[in-house]
Amino acid sequence: MAKILLIINKSSGIGHDSGILDSLGETIRKSFPRDYKIKIASNHSEIKSFIQDYLNKNLTGNITIIVAGGGGTLRAVIEGIYQSRIPLSRVKIATLRMGSGNVFAKNLGIKPEPIEGLKGIIDSIKKSRTIKGSIILCESPDGKHKNKRLRYVAATLGGLGQFGSIPDDLKRFHEKFPSIRKLFVRILGIEKFTDIEYGIALFSRIIRCAFNRRRCEYIEVSFKGKKESFALLSGVILNFPLKALPFNPELSLEDKKLVCYLIPRRDFLSGIMMLSKGWLLENAKEYTIDKKNPLRIKLLDRESSGFFLDEDPLSFYNQVEIRYGGELNFVAGINYKTRG
Fold it and tell me: With contact defined as beta carbons under 8 Å apart, do 160 and 307 qualify?
């Protein structure tokens, strides 16, 4: 039997009280009375460091990590795995819906209530419901150290251009008005409210870009030996289709590829028309990224720019290269539909 690690981010979403944390721990103890460990953390940096250290001390045997958090917590766990020395084949990941968007766990068919979701995961672990899922890998130069490159990984999606700046906008809003966010989360539910606030933030940015082209990065895109340049309005990197987005690529989590859509800003109307699904589907540039074909985006009018991976706000210096980052083993829910 694999070792079980339950890692809980008590700050994910709008935070979790001790009652739910105790119930998660008790459920694990009853199901895996011997070889288990429970870690409670409060931020992504702590989680990434803990995972890396824990795996480096447990290089033999198999380990199943149950992530009690959201997309950012899951990304921190994956970064810790990639920075450790353990072979990827020895690790399985399960994830609960305890964050803001929870897109990845939802895609895997995990139930929304934490305890019920955990019981379903435990059943899937015991019945070996496991799939191989692709990982998004982004690399860029380190602006502070000339010969160093920064490496980021994610499981769900990435955002570029105006879409890529939204998590940073929302982070500032949440810090300034925490009580407003908590109120609407209680009324609407955190996943629904997250979709709404992303939509409002994107609408605001797109309208401002319609009147000011300088808000858009001017980029050079290199793909399969060809180059093209344009002002970038928005972009998205997908590991599987998302209902909240207008794109519907022939893509599943299990495919060994990613899809990136880049939307150029050609004129004033581009900003306004981006609000139309038909215009988006007609004008977006599509790039299928696999092991042999990375996508490189170079900034031509500024030194750095913001983007996000799995809701985490990040930045890149000069250029970013988007790659297929290999596969990890994920525990699927009973209702997950496998490829084919």
Answer: yes
Length of the chain: 340
pTM value is: 0.92
Q: What is the DSSP letter of 293?
A: B
Main-chain dihedrals φ then ψ at residue 276, nearest 5 degrees:
-100, 125
CA 62, 326, 128: angle at the middle one, nearest 5?
40
Give the rounded distance of the alpha carbon of 230 from its chain centre. 26
Nearest by Cα to 101 from 193, 32, 29: 193
Question: In 4-113, which residue ranges form alpha helices assigned H by DSSP?
Answer: 18-31, 44-56, 71-83, 103-107
Listed residue (235, 239, 237) closest to 160, CA to CA: 235
Q: How far apart are CA 168 and CA 172, in angstroms?
A: 6
Burial 67-105 (b: 16+ CB within 10 A, else e): bbbbbbbbbbbbbbbbbbebeeebbbbbbbbbbbbbbbb
Count the alpha carbons within 13 Å of 106 in the hemisphere toward its beta carbon.
Answer: 17
pLDDT tens digits for 254-309?
999 999 999 998 876 666 666 667 777 788 999 999 999 999 999 999 999 999 99
- DSSP letter at 241 equals -
Q: What backbone torsions phi and psi does residue 334 show, to the nearest 5 degrees?
A: -60, -30
pLDDT in tens, 42-84: 999 999 999 999 999 998 889 999 999 999 999 999 999 999 9
Domains of the chain: 3-128 (3.40.50.10330), 136-166+208-324 (2.60.200.30)
CA distance 74 to 82: 12
